[in-house]
Amino acid sequence: MPIKPITGMLRRSLVLDISVAFGLGTSFGYLFWYGYHVPAVRKRDLYYSKLEDQRAANAAA
Amino acid sequence: MLNLLSLSFLSSCDSPRPWGLYFQDSATPQMEGLVELHDNIMFYLVIILFGSPISHKYLNHALILILIAFPSFKLLYLMDEVSDPAIYQYPDFLNTEDEFIEFDSYLVPESDLEEGALRMLEVDNRVIIPELTHVRFIITAADVIHSFACPALGIKCDAYPGRLNQVSVLINREGVFYGLTEQWPKL
């Protein structure tokens, strides 16, 4: 029975490991960023813009 | 469980809450900067968390530490800047009887707490400070090392006997912000 060629195994495993690691890590990182951080910042900015409008309305009145 | 999450994790608050995760709502630019820094670091930590079981064989994590260090230093030095406070000092204000405003403020004992009051946080006299005004706190202690901390304002400053420390804040919005010493004296 022929055996699998062993040339290129190191390079293949390096590329696979690093791409899987970075792929997984970056995907979950962006999931956190766009899934939690960005909506939280948007909510905060919305609150402050409403507050600013309210202050302007109070100042005008 | 969902109820717990919706009450604690997702709700907005200016004080600690049961089962709370994450930060209290920020009320100053410093605290917003701290939350931003935390989230930036979390981004890298999530990459490490999911990528590291595989990539630790090849990568030196000092690179990640350097990525984290620079924004951290920047924020640290920015927070250390003490802006010129408003020209008034607390003792400049007079009460209705033309006396200087000077008061003690102590924690309300557990036995005297009213319904809904926060244990170990409620005080008998609250410090009232203006919003959208640079305010400087000058902090010292009379006996041992204490500290003055208010998470929603993003400040924590040690209070040493015989030494004055200062922190400055610019409060963006109205609110009742709770804090306490984070330097428990050894008994």
Structural features, described:
Chain A: InterPro entries: Cyt_c_oxidase_su7a_fun. Chain A: One of its GO terms (cellular component) is mitochondrial inner membrane. Chain A: Belongs to the fungal cytochrome c oxidase subunit 7a family. The complex is a heterodimer of chains A (61) and B (187). Chain A has 61 residues and is mostly helical. Chain A has one helix at residues 9-60. In chain A, 85% of the residues lie in helices and 0% in strands. Chain A is rod-shaped. The mean pLDDT of chain A is 90. In chain B, strand 2 (146-150) and strand 3 (155-159) form a beta hairpin. The relative contact order of chain B is 0.17. Chain B is elongated and about 70 Å long. Chain A binds chain B through residues 14, 17-18, 20-22, 24-29, 31-33, 36-37, 44, 48, 51, and chain B through 25-26, 32, 39, 42-44, 46-55, 57-58, 172-173.
Number of strands of chain A: 0
Largest sheet of chain A, in brief, is: none
Distance between the termini of chain A: 91 Å
**Biggest sheet of chain B, open or closed, and with what strands and sense?**
2 strands, antiparallel
Proportion of residues in extended strands of chain A? under 5%
Q: Which structural class fits the helix and strand makeup of chain B?
A: alpha+beta
Question: Radius of gyration of chain A, rounded?
Answer: 26 Å
Our count of helices of chain A gives 1
End-to-end Cα distance of chain B, whole Å, is 38 Å
| Beta-strand percent range of chain B | 5-15%
Task: Specify the number of helices of chain B.
Answer: 3
- The largest beta-sheet of chain B arranges its strands as 1-4
Considering DSSP H and I runs of 4 or more, what fraction of the residues of chain A is helical?
over 70%
Task: Write down the overall mean pLDDT of chain B.
Answer: 81
Order of helices and strands of chain B: HHHEEEE
Q: Low-confidence runs of chain A (pLDDT<50, min 5 residues)?
A: none
Shape label of chain A: rod-shaped
- Find the structural class of chain A using helix and strand composition: mainly alpha
Can you write the helix and strand succession of chain A as a string?
H
| Rg result of chain B | 20 Å
